Amino acid sequence: MPEVGLEGQLKLKASSVLVVGAGGLGTPAATYLAAAGVGRIGVVDHDVVETSNLHRQVLFTESDVGKSKAEVLSARLELINPHIRAEPHNLKLNSSNALGIIGDYEIVIDGTDNFPTRYLINDACVLLGKPDVYASVFRFDGQASVFSGRSGPCYRCLYPEPPPPDTVPSCAEGGVLGVLPGVMGSIQAIQALNLLLGTGSPLVGRLLLFDAISMTFEEINIKKNPGCPACGTNPKIKELVDYDDFCGLRSASTKDGVTPEDLKKSIERGAKIIILDVREPSEHKICQIPGSILIPLGSLMERAKEFSRNADIVVYCHTGLRSERAVSFLRGLGFTRVKNLEGGIKAWAERVDPAMPMY
């Protein structure tokens, strides 16, 4: 390609990109960067491969289940292109290590699926002057942009405040069309290559929206916010903070929680407990704790009156976040004996009923 040429290929060979999240977005992005000849690719992920990942993280196979995502993906990248170096970071990116890790690469690809890490990556990139190549997916919708705090708006300019905890479910909870992350991750790879080569018009100041149902792309202009605490005229963010706390994700106190093992013991001894499932009907069809009552979180406000405020209630969802919110809501209504199933039905399946179907 004349737009790349020998000079551009050598530039890619000498470049480095950090991919945060070896999932549906990070896997295709890293794959195409390796195939294009980006010389050094870092992969950050602290999770292991799960069966539920395989429909959208197609570089993994069933034989990889239980293995480190960062290590498996890094090994596959070097198989795709043995002339590049893939560096696995089998850890969770946090406020204590982000600056050191991100500072060692030219560009960051944000392939994460949670708000604390997105704000963490944004703030670290602004402080270090690194481009943040962003994308997100949910069901049939995707969005992408390039946040460059020095030359354009950053993630905080688009989303000044995080949404209330668990109002936006993860891909695992809300679902995602398996092909969609491949599309958006490929767009992230294109953006990174354009930035490295100095070609094209990167999505700085532009939010690209993709609707996989109607097969349409739309674009929204994003303006740099002069009052932005990260990249504004007088930035207030000088260091990284506790992003779980910033996003309101600190767990409820232990008095509001019950372990799967303790719930199982209570059921076996015949305790009178209402087990409340606040997931969606489609999730309940896949698996449920025997005897549980389904009331989706969105319907809880109108149906809470069905229960006595003195009843013993254990609430569960997929991983414990929606149920935690439900517990807080019920306590606000005067329910005094309501608890959250720690880890949700996922933990129940892993630790109490391994034969239960999972998603």
Strand order of the largest sheet: 3-2-1-4-5-6-7-8
Number of distinct helices: 14
Tell me what the CATH architecture of the largest domain is. Answer: 3-Layer(aba) Sandwich
Oligomer: single chain
Question: How much of the sequence is in beta strands?
Answer: 15-25%
The structural class is: alpha/beta
Features of the shown structure:
17% strand, five-stranded parallel sheet, Oxidized Rhodanese, domain 1, eight-stranded mixed sheet, 359 residues, 2 domains, single chain, alpha/beta, Rossmann fold
In words, what does this structure look like?
With 359 residues, the chain is of the alpha/beta class. It has 2 domains: 5-246, Rossmann fold (3-Layer(aba) Sandwich); 254-351, Oxidized Rhodanese, domain 1. Helices cover 33% and strands 17% of the residues. It has 14 helices and 13 strands. It has helices at residues 5-13, 26-36, 69-80, 98-102, 115-128, 155-158, 171-174, 180-197, 243-246, 260-268, 281-286, 300-303, 321-332, 344-351, and strands spanning 16-20, 40-44, 85-89, 107-110, 132-138, 141-147, 206-211, 216-221, 257-258, 274-277, 293-294, 313-316, 338-341. An 8-stranded mixed beta sheet has the order 3-2-1-4-5-6-7-8, with helices on both faces. A 5-stranded parallel beta sheet has the order 9-13-12-10-11. α2 (26-36) runs parallel beside α3. 40% of the residues are buried. The mean pLDDT is 92.
